[in-house]
Structure formats: structure tokens, C-alpha cells
Design brief:
Blueprint (H helix, E strand, L loop, with lengths): L9 E12 L6 H7 L3 E2 L8 E5 L4 E5 L4 E7 L2 H17 L11 E10 L6 H7 L3 E2 L8 E4 L6 E4 L4 E7 L2 H19 L3
Antiparallel strand pairs: 1-5, 1-6, 2-3, 3-4, 4-5, 6-10, 7-8, 8-9, 9-10
Length: 187
């Protein structure tokens, strides 16, 4: 990397995982029998899978009314997905009267930090890392002082997981870049 050249960070959210409660018991067998785009096999897993077309998300719905929704790329898509679930329940005469409280559990982001990385050197010099190129081509790095975990690839591509806000994704990525620059410029 040339001196004074600023690295070009590009990162975007690819998945938001949220949980909520509808405060109603949900008849999963009735849902599975009535609604399209559902999968329910209680012998294998206690939740029903509902695939939502727009926005393209999936929800795990439990008989207790707990819901885990995944696949959204924005919080607006999360809201639309939860409303879609509520409309689906209305079709089987389950009326959700509360506004569900949504808790973000995890945000996954991917992108590039605009610099080539020598993963062999980083595997030795960067703390909190796992790098076994025979097993997997990426380096796993747990960023100290945050909940963020990164996958780093030699071409500068990254995946960040473990954060709960978009701001936390960007702060963790900026801290990662700062750490990488300080390690890579040492002789």
C-alpha cells in the first residue's frame, strides 16, 4: 500500500437477525396446514419456518409466540417481515394486538477494506486469531473490546459478525483497519 493512500472501505449489511414475541400462543400445525411457504416438522425441530417473499426473509415461529427473523438487510425490512407474519396469523384468526418489541441479535456485514492482506503474517502478529489455510482460506479474528468477529481474506474482503447496530459494524471495521495498518507497517 502506498504511503498516504487512504484505504477504501466498502461494507454493507447482508443479514440482520432479530427476535421478538407476539404475546400469543400460535397453533403451528394449523399454520402449516393453512399457509403456503411453511415448513413444520416437530419431531426434528419445535419451530415452524415461514418463508416471506417480500422482503425475502425467513422466520422461525414457536408455539409460545416467540419469533426469530433472519435475512433482512435493513431494519425497515425487519418491520415489514414482522407485519407480514402478523397478517399471516390473521388469516388463521390469530389477532396480534401488540406492537412487537424487536431485539437485534446479530448483524452480518460483508465488503472490502481495500488492501491486500498477508494472512500468514497476520496469523502470527494479530492477537485473537485462528488461521488454518488447509482447513479454510480465511483468517478468523475476534476484535478485542468488541463483540465483532471478522473473517479476513487475502484479497481484502471481509465478513463481520457479532454486532447489533450498523454504527457498531463501522466502528469495529475502522478499528480493525487501524490495527491491521499498525501491524503491517512494522518491519
Amino acid at each position: 500500500m502506498a504511503k498516504g493512500k487512504e484505504t477504501k472501505k466498502e461494507i454493507k449489511i447482508v443479514n440482520i437477525v432479530v427476535s421478538t414475541g407476539l404475546e400469543k400462543d400460535i397453533p403451528l400445525e394449523k399454520m402449516a396446514a393453512t399457509l403456503p411457504n411453511t415448513e413444520y416438522n416437530p419431531e426434528q425441530f419445535p419451530g415452524l419456518v415461514l418463508r416471506i417473499k417480500d422482503p425475502k426473509t425467513s422466520a422461525l415461529i414457536f408455539s409460545s409466540g416467540k419469533v426469530v427473523c433472519t435475512g433482512a438487510r435493513t431494519l425497515e425490512d425487519v418491520e415489514r417481515s414482522i407485519q407480514s407474519i402478523i397478517r399471516s396469523l390473521k388469516k388463521i384468526n390469530i389477532h396480534v394486538t401488540i406492537k412487537p418489541k424487536i431485539a437485534v441479535q446479530n448483524i452480518v456485514a460483508s465488503g472490502s477494506i481495500g488492501m491486500d492482506l498477508n494472512l500468514n503474517i497476520l496469523g502470527i502478529k494479530l492477537p485473537n486469531t485462528e488461521y488454518e489455510p488447509e482447513q479454510f482460506p480465511g483468517l478468523v479474528h475476534k476484535l478485542k473490546g468488541t463483540n465483532a468477529t471478522f473473517l479476513l481474506f487475502s484479497n481484502g474482503k471481509i465478513v463481520c459478525t457479532g454486532t447489533k447496530t450498523e454504527q457498531a459494524v463501522h466502528e469495529a471495521t475502522d478499528k480493525l483497519i487501524e490495527n491491521l495498518k499498525s501491524i503491517l507497517k512494522k518491519p
